[in-house]
What we know:
Radius of gyration: 26 Å
Shape: globular
Distance between the termini: 48 Å
Number of strands: 27
CATH topology of the largest domain: Jelly Rolls
Order of helices and strands: EEEEEEEEEEEEEEEEEEEHEEEEEEEE
Number of helices: 1
Structural class: mainly beta
CATH class of the largest domain: Mainly Beta
Amino acid sequence: MPFSYNFRLRCVVALGAVLLAGCGSGGGSTTGTTTTQTAAPTVATTAAQNGAVIASLNTTTAGATIYYTVDGSAPTTSSPIYEAPFLVASNLTLNAMAAAPGDTNSTVTSQTFAPNIPSDTLVWSDEFSNTTGANAQPNPLTWTYDTGAGGWGNDELENYCGWNSSSSPCSSASPNVYVGTDGYLHIVAEEPSPGVYTSARLKTEGLFSFQYGRIEFSAEVPEAQGFWPADWLLGNSIASEDWPACGEMDVLERVNAAGSPDWNMGSIHGTGFTGSNLGTQFDFPSGETAGSAFHTYGMIWSKGSVAYYVDNPSQPYVTYTPASISGFSGSVWPFDSGPSFIILNLAVGGSWPGSPNASTPFPSQMLVDYVRIYTN
Length: 376
C-alpha cells in the first residue's frame, strides 16, 4: 500500500520507523512503500446429495481474485479463476490462493475431499417440487435470470422476464417463469401485444456449477414456427474470457414445428468452432416427436469427452473429443478448463427458426420436470 509523508521543520516517528526527509526549515518529502499480503481463501461446503457437496471459496481482501486447482497442483495466476460455487462429487484435492493488485499473493489453502461416491450416483438435482398450493419461485439459491431484449446475439425477438416481473412488457399476471403445483418448471412464451414477445431464460451462473458427470433434463418442448427451446451449459470463465472461449455445450436444442422425423440437436462450441460446425442431429423413432411427451435429454461429460443421448444413456448418438475439432483452424478445446453453469430458455424468433407466424400459438411453454446430475 503506497504512502508518503511531507515533513516541515520536524521529523515524524511512525510505527517504530524513523522517516527522515530533509529535516529543517527547508522542508522536503519522501515516499515509502509497504506491502500487505492478500488474505488466504476460505473453503465452505454445503451438502448436495449422496455424499457430494457444493464448495464455495472466499477471501476477505476486497477486489482479490481467487485462483484454484483440483488436481493437487499449486495454483498460480494462470490457474482457473473461481467464479461460482461448484459441485464436488469425486475424490480430489482443492488448492486455492488469492491475489490482489499491490499485494503479495496469499498463502495456499488446501482441502482434500474423499467422498468415494460410486459411479452412476445422483449427486445433485432440482426436482421443481412445489407444495405451496400456488405458483412458486424457482429456487433462488440455484436460479437467476437473463432479462431484457436485444437479440442475445441471435436476432431473437423476445424480451426475457424474471420471476414475478411486472416491468413492461413483462406481467406478473401472465408469468413467464414459475414452478407450478404440478411439479414442473414452466417457461412460457407470451405475445402480450401484436409482434411483442416475452419468455424466460434461467441460469445458475454465479450460484452453482459443475465439471464432469452425467446431466439430464427431463423436458417437454413446444413445437411451432419461431420457437427455439434449449437446455445448455456455458463455462464459468465467460465472466473473464467471454464467448466462445468459455465453451458451450447444447444438450437440448431444436427449432420450429415437429419434423418428420422429429429431431434434437446436440452441439459444442468454442474458439475456432462455432455456428453449425459441430452439431449432430438425433432423429426420434418413427411416431415420436420432441413435443409429444417428456423426453430425457442427457450429456455425459468426462475429461476429453462430451457425449449426448436422448432417453437412453447407454446409447449416445454422438461423442465429441479434442480430435473432433482438430480440423478447425485455431480451435481450442475448452471443456477441461473448469466448471460450467446451466441455462434453460425458450427463445422466440431468431436467426435459426425465423419469426413466428399466424400458426404459432401463444401462450406456449417448455416444461421441465427435473435437472439431475450423476457421477460418471
